[in-house]
Amino acid sequence: MKKTVLFCFILLISGGLCAETSKHKLPKQIDPHSFANFDEVVVTHMSLNLQANFKKSRLEGSNTLRYQVLKPTAKHLILDTRDLVIKRITYPGSKKELKAKWHLIQADNGLGAALKITLPENHPDLTIHYHSQPQASGLQWLTASQTAGNKHPFLFSQSQAIHARSWIPSQDSPSVRTTYTATITAPKALWVVMSAQNQAEKSADGVYHFNMPQAIPAYLIAIAVGDLAYKNISKHVSIYAEDAYLEKAAYEFAETENMITAAEKLYGAYRWGTYDLLILPPSFPFGGMENPRLSFITPTVIAGDRSLDSLIAHELAHSWSGNLVTNASWRDLWLNEGFTTYFEARITEAVHGTERMKMEAALNLQGLKAEMAEMDPKYQALALKENINDPDDVFSGVAYDKGRFFLEWMEVAVGRPTFDAFLNKYFDDFAFKSISTDQFLQYLDKHLIQPSQGKITMKAVKQWIYEPGLPDTLPVPTTDRFKVIDKQVADLTINDKGLKKIASDQWTTQEWLHFMKALPEQLNQKQMQALDNHFQFSQAANAEIAHVWLMMSIKNDFQPAFARLISYLNEIGRMKLIVPLYQALAESKAHQNLGKNIYQSARPGYHNLARYKIDPLFPDMKFETQDAK
Ligand SMILES: [Zn+2]
Question: I need a surface site. Which of 230, 329, 542, 552 has the fewest CB within 10 A?
């Protein structure tokens, strides 16, 4: 209600047509998470001209859109927005600036507001003059103290799933692809990068120009502005990072070029030119984000031994599955993430060997089973039958790991050469297109199921895609390296003497994680102390190992680890690592207050998406600012 009044005020003073929600119906939707009428009028190119205003925490300027009318009877172009202040809309190119008729229709279902613009005759472009607001769900504005360098602020975007609309008025559906150019102005001390071709040198005047000549969905448009340094590490790969992370990242991700070579050998040419990595400040809510040409990466995978670089394999694999062939709606997310997780495993296998790939598979399966044990069955199908309000809720292990094991099951059934040939053709046939689960099934039937002559059937495929749980046909990953650990744990007495017998000298991160997860859930103080004395888990530099240890410490009330727990939760914002810790704290009567105290101090440094997941864990806490979601 309050928002409608505010919008009307802004529209009235800016000369647009003010619209009460009651007077204008929300448009009919083609994509359940977008208001865009892309079956009638489709945006084909966007030209952004924005200034990063750190004082006001907003991007301000304009977006000039080129559109194509598909239905001659169409009268409007409809875009998605969320919390944007639209100042005016004009038609460029005419001698006298022509103002467009437009209005915003606010939705109350979390999708933002539809921006409905009346189409004039004979104008193929229009310019929207606007700015974002500090609460933009797709932008995080960090203060200098929230960065490693401590001197300059930092801005980064996270547009997936439907957050591009909070900083770019756009047809924010994965079914709509546009090219884009951008001119971005930032304070001179800072470097601007985008999901496009990036510069190898800092601009002297703070103005940066970008061109993305390949058509991509709005969720892949990305920006970051910060005190960045640059290092080229191989033919395709350069790293952008704060100085503190640059050399460490260059070492950690040195295999990236080999990963590109391996990926091309598997599924065809890398089609995007360069492949750069941007290392974000630790508050980045995800492991990585596959923004084309410039993957966004959490620093929490910098382990010092390249043991967590499968994340790079994952983001790189998205250059085929996701960025090249894209899920048509967020209900089909498994087509992006399941394919990518499978492809990631194949790259990891090629670069680091089968054992590493199998260990990761076993850990992922263990995690998936634990997640599914607490999940409503309706969310356990790969393709969700019912609508989901918030597409961020689809991002579970089901889309990723169940999707991956589904593909692996097909690979085993038809044989690797046949399956690889199928995937090659699939990536070619659907390159730069979006695809739904139904379209995929038709394609699969024709190109793999029928030729397989009974090795796989549509019935078995549909069980994977539409039924909850994991089918009996699941290919269970096994590895001798974990069997050796299981044997040691079975014989283990957890005290100083017993732990000395554990042969851990050559263990990789994956073996450590398996060892810790194989220990009994209930451990007494002496046992926890013995483990910490022997392995120094409370000081673990590896963020994944520290995470498992802190989970064990909360569950077993091992207070000597709590100083690390406090610093860990204050330092990083990657949801995979922090949300389960808060869950464990919130569920424990003894530690709920500790959880609240930590959250109170850490929350300002967290991304909107992380707050959205953690706020409900502490329902009686009151927060100063209301977030966009
Ligand atoms: Zn992914």
Answer: 230
Query: Considering the domain boundaries, does residue 489 fall inside one?
Result: no
* Contact status, residue 540 vs residue 548, Cβ threshold 8 Å: no
Catalytic residue, chosen from 242, 255, 315, 337, is 315
How would residue 97 be classed by pLDDT, with cut points 50, 70 and 90? Answer: confident
* Domain count for the chain: 3
If you measure from the C-alpha of residue 286 to the centroid of ligand 1, how many angstroms do you get, rounded to a whole number? 10
Active site (annotated) includes residue 400: yes
Query: Would you list the DSSP string of 123-145?
Result: --EEEEEEE--TT-TTEEEE-GG
Q: Is residue 411 part of a domain?
A: yes
Catalytic pick among 180, 400, 426, 582: 400
DSSP at 275: -
What is the pTM for the complete model shown?
A: 0.95
- Section 464-486 average pLDDT: 96
Instruction: Quote the ligand 1 centre to 337 CA distance (angstroms).
Output: 5
Any catalytic annotation for residue 267?
Answer: no
In-domain check, residue 239: no
**How far is the centre of ligand 1, averaged over its atoms, from the C-alpha of 336 (Å)?**
7
Q: What is the DSSP string of 95-121?
A: SSPEEPPEEEEE-SSSS-EEEEEE--S
Tell me the pLDDT tens digit for each residue of 413-455.
999 999 999 999 999 999 999 999 999 999 999 999 999 999 9
User: How much is the pLDDT for 625?
Assistant: 54
With contact defined as beta carbons under 8 Å apart, do 448 and 410 qualify? yes
Task: State the distance from the centre of ligand 1 to the C-alpha of 315, rounded, in angstroms.
Answer: 6
What is the distance in A from the centroid of ligand 1 to the CA of 311?
Answer: 9
Instruction: Find the domain containing 455 and state its range.
Output: 326-478
Q: What is the CATH number of the domain that holds 560?
A: 1.25.40.320
Banded pLDDT at 3 (limits 50, 70, 90): very low
Within-domain flag for 410: yes
